[in-house]
Specification:
By secondary structure, the protein is mostly helical. It has three helices and no strands.
Length: 96
């Protein structure tokens, strides 16, 4: 590989990183609007998509990023719910 070829390769790598960062920010905004159930549904779609033998490398990368963000979102939703449950005063639950 000549010097100019290496420069082009590095340019595409840098360009791809910028594109990925932009995609991640877009994915985060969209994912943060989802409920827990919607997030799980999206994860199931990704799993089904990944099992396709004809999936492109770019699609694998996108699925990995989306899947990671969805899992993180689900974890945050579960932690929030757990915190709310822990804050419930047992006296409010007593039936008289």
């Amino acid at each position: 590989m000549s010097f100019s070829d290496e420069g082009i390769k590095n340019h595409f790598s840098m360009s791809n990183k910028v594109t990925n960062k932009n995609n991640i920010e877009i994915f985060k905004k969209d994912i943060n609007k989802l409920t827990y159930e919607e997030s799980i549904s999206e994860l199931e779609k990704i799993l089904s998509n990944v099992q396709d033998e004809n999936i492109s490398l770019d699609q694998i990368q996108i699925n990995y990023i989306k899947g990671h963000l969805l899992l993180k979102h689900c974890d945050e939703l579960l932690q929030f719910c757990e915190q709310e449950i822990n804050e419930i005063n047992p006296e409010f639950l007593e039936l008289d």
